[in-house]
């Protein structure tokens, strides 16, 4: 097990994305062979490139959670992710993460060498996932998501997005604590693009400091290539890297402790600029 805190306060932790899915919204199919099987060599090569760019954690995902995505059976998700986690664990000492909402998938991933379980549903999909994490000593990322990816953009309603996300994340944290996950191993994520409209994403990103102060835990954000950037810039998914870098810099300035991104090299620069500006701020906001 990788040691202590994988998300220390003194740095911006960079989580590089490795999606081994056919249908992820920006990189689906990229790490699959023509027949549809996961190409473990390509995953390892891509993972090592992300590490060379500065990734502290590699996040392997076997189920897309883009709006409208269909759920993947857990056996399929395990078949996609566990072998590549094993291959990555042999190839690099960097911390590995499994992006899943399912306890059984998390269990297989932890056995294969993962150190982090990244649950975008914040334990709402499978409350049993928390016990799996508690037993393993892994770190748990709790995301904010109402409902299911397939339908999450259909009826989005918040009276006060910041307040409601804080409250619902706090409930996820309480469930994790009750299941035995220690507080030092919990990271929270407001779930950019998960069941939110443009203005909700903007309010969350602009006020991360407030979420962070309220929850008292490290904050991860994942703005990478997401739809809100397309709405702001007009850029299609394939051309959202520059906007992603801008969003990452501002997220760090606003209080993010960690960034989940496809392009780690861009996020390293964004984090350097955002962190320097945050340190220079006179107001004391987390
Ligand atoms: N976003 C995505 C997936 N996992 N995990 C966290 N903690 N935070 C996020 O914002 C987040 C996440 C969606 O992005 P991506 O993996 O690129 O796409 P897809 O879900 O289509 O595979």
Model description:
- The protein has helices at residues 40-53, 74-91, 103-112, 129-136, 161-178, 198-206, 208-215, 227-233, 241-254, 264-280; strands at 13-19, 57-61, 95-99, 116-119, 139-143, 186-189, 220-221, 258-261.
- The protein is α/β, with parallel strands linked by helices and 286 residues long.
- The chain has a single domain (13-280), classed as Dihydropteroate synthase-like (TIM Barrel), CATH 3.20.20.
- Strands 6-5-4-3-2-1-8-7 form an 8-stranded parallel beta sheet.
- Strand 5, helix 5 (161-178) and strand 6 form a beta-alpha-beta unit.
- It is globular.
- It starts with 12 loop residues before the first strand and ends in a 6-residue tail after the last helix.
- The mean pLDDT is 95.
- The structure holds 6-hydroxymethylpterin-diphosphate.
- 6-hydroxymethylpterin-diphosphate binds next to strand 1 and strand 5.
- 6-hydroxymethylpterin-diphosphate binds at residues 17, 19, 21, 24-26, 61, 64-66, 99, 118, 120, 141, 143, 189, 192, 220, 222, 260.
Summarize the structure.
With 286 residues, the protein is an alpha/beta fold.
CATH superfamily: Dihydropteroate synthase-like
Chain-averaged pLDDT:
95
Strand order across the largest sheet: 6-5-4-3-2-1-8-7
Classify the secondary structure makeup into a structural class.
Answer: alpha/beta
Number of domains: 1
